[in-house]
What does this fold into?
Amino acid sequence: MKKILAVSLSVSFIIAMATGTRAATLDYRTAINKIEAKGSPAVIQYFEDGKGNKGKMVAFTGKVYSSSPSLKIREYPNADASAVKTLSFGASVDRVGLCDNGWSKLVITVDDKKVYGYAESYYLSSDKLIKKMRERLSVVEDAQVLDFPGTRDGLSVGELSTGDTVICTGMCSDNWSRITFKNNSGKKVTGFVQNHVLSEIKGRKKAEDPDAQQMEDAEDGEGMIDGEAVIQPSSAGTSSIWAQAATENLQDTSEAANAIIVNEGEAVNVSSTAKLKPLGDFRITHYCACSICCGPYSGLNSTSSGVPPVTNHTIAVDPKQIPYGTKVVINGQVYVAEDSGAAIKKNCIDIYVATHEEASSKGMYRTEVYLLEEEDADKKDG
It folds into this structure.
């Protein structure tokens, strides 16, 4: 069962169910189709993955952007190869080819030299993910600062208290701003917070901070990216750069552009005869497909295992602890491990729900989780 959520936007507060700014992942076959649709021949090359395996690669050039908080660029196109560089979220890099094993060939700079490297195509967006700006803002609500603009994947890198001031260096997705601030140790920290915890400081147009200017002058490859975003404005007619950008983007936003297809599933209760194996006490949270939860991955209608998420069915897990496809029982209901997230670590489970309102209302709790041990079909037939 599917339904489409259409969310109206208000000027005072936004919880947008947006399709996000991240484009769908470009793969080997799609790249060939794009080239041939233009009447040009696809140039096919070959690659070796460092493990003795060979594959095909289509030449395809263009600038792409990291949609991972810490994207490893590797020597060969496989996850076990040595990392030669790490890109932060939003950092740009030049792509020169797409491999048929799900990796992209990139041109990177290491020790002032141009070299080739590889990254998983899933974490590369053709769209710019951050709109660069520089403004001092006030914190109006205590908040955690994350290393990624999404609660499912973001890990805490600091805390803000009401009354603090921060430098906004960019906006991304619908609900997040990138900021810099100094933590209790006096160290400068860069991270992401939800827009509703920030407010303009009246009468101040730009941050009077030499460090902020230095960040503004940084190269795109270091994470300072232009792009499109939709954020919460603070008030009409303001001179704030941050709020002006919000208002301008809201003018181009419609309900149709903020609709998400939600796959709804029926709840499955565990059978009284089922065999259950205790997995321990788990921290249970809830998430949906909005940009608050998923950041640039919002609205993609796909989990990290490649299947569409379904309510009353899909959970995000640490796949090292609970492999994809595993059925578990939480409070008498059966769920399937199909998704993951950087913030979902050992003994944590995130349950997929239809809306952010539902995710917020169900909140966080702790409970016992059980592995559903299903009888082998062959043994049962025998």
